[in-house]
Structures are given as structure tokens and as C-alpha cells.
Amino acid sequence: MKIGHDIDIGHIHTLEYIEHHAPRVPIPDIHGVLQQPNSNRIFVLMSRAPGEPLDSKWKFLGENEKSSIREQLDTIVGYFRFLPAPVSDETRAVLGGGSPRRCKDARRQVRVAQGCISNEREFNEFPISHPHRAQTGNISMIKSYLEDDHKDFLAHGDFHPRNMKVLARLKDPVADGALPKDSLYPTDDTVNKSTTPVTITEILDWEMCGWYPEYWEYVKALNTITPGSDLDDWWAYLPEKIGIWPREHAIDLMLSRWHG
């Protein structure tokens, strides 16, 4: 069950589409949605796969295990990335997700486009608009860098290790002699990082999913990765099918600084 205030349940429409057309994508089964009377508190009833968040395991994994994660994610992305967008009830609503179909942009806060967006040129106006930011020469410069000839693909929109569940079987460091027998918890220095089978069991939190320019999955996968953290090599293990978009990533970082 997922519980929260103002949960955007519009994405469930897109999840159902993915489940129907790409049933091999490991996503939760949604069993129902309840809203507390006279409140914006929402309960989403869903299935729960075994495992733990990938971000909690990442620092214990070696290169082989991280490469295995990358290969598994590449297969999963291949199941859903190239699904065509279904025809929307609103003819101009081409990009975005949910019902009604709208574009979203998560930085410090999640912003939702007010209306339909039908192409990348219109989409480019969305991240460079902000009710509390002045249209300075700097944002005009950033706007001049934006291109409008990317293909559109289905993106999860928040492809971060915290939104992935894995089953990881760590090698027993006590039995292996790496820790004394009275140790209860391995440390970063004593865990054997080369013998850890890891399996992805579920991709969670699809609230930001939708059809976006092809670079979107890449830049949003790196959106909240802090340099020097346990995840600062996450960029090196992103699935191949989402591509590598250094120019677009640099522009997105400039946009994030402008948004503040």
C-alpha cells in the first residue's frame, strides 16, 4: 500500500496500458484507490514484490553485480520504451502521461503543465517557464540551446535506484572469514563485493511516467544523484537503451540552477 497526500493517481492509466502491452515489465499490480473522506489523503492498494530498494544495496555491489543490474534494466526498458502512445481524448495531448495526459517536470518540486503539449517545440517552453523566476538573458541563452527534433519515447521519468527493488544475496562475511564470528553487521571494508547475485524484482513509483523526448529518461535518472554519494557512479550503469545525452544533461543542469 502507498499512502500520501495529493498523490497523483492519473499515472495509473498509463500503468494499465504498460501492463497490457508489456506484461513482462515488473510493475506493481494496482488493486484499488481509496481517499479519506474530507481529506486529500490517498491510499493506493497495490501488490508488493520481495526485495529491498536498490539504493540501499548499491554500495555493497561490485562491478560485476552493477553490470548485471545494467543488463537487467536494459531488458526491462526494452519492453516499455518503444510502446507507442495511445490516442488521447484530447487531440493535442501527445506528450506526457496519465489521464488527462500532461507533462511533468520534477526538480525541487513537481510541476505539471497546465495544458496539452503536442510536440517538442511546445514542450521546450514548459521547463523554461516559472511563475517566480524572471525571464533573464541567461534563460534566453538556455532556450537557444534547446532542440526540437528528438524522437518521443515512453519514459519512467524517475529512473533512480530508490525506485527499484532487488533481491540481493550477500556472501556471508563471517563464514568466509572476513569478519569475526561475533560480528553482526558487515562494514563497507569487509563485505566481499564480488560474489553478490542481484535480481531486480520491481520498478516502483511511476508517477512521472509518460511520453517525452528521447533524452528525458537519461537526464531524469541523474536528477537527484549527489556527487560523492554512494550512487555517484550510477551514470555508468544506466541501461544502454535510454542512450547517453551529455549535451541535454548539461542544459538540464543549467535549467535546474535557474529554477533554484
From TrEMBL:
InterPro entries: AGP_Transferase (IPR051678), Kinase-like_dom_sf (IPR011009). It comes from the Eukaryota. SUPFAM superfamilies: Protein kinase-like (PK-like). This is Aminoglycoside phosphotransferase domain-containing protein.
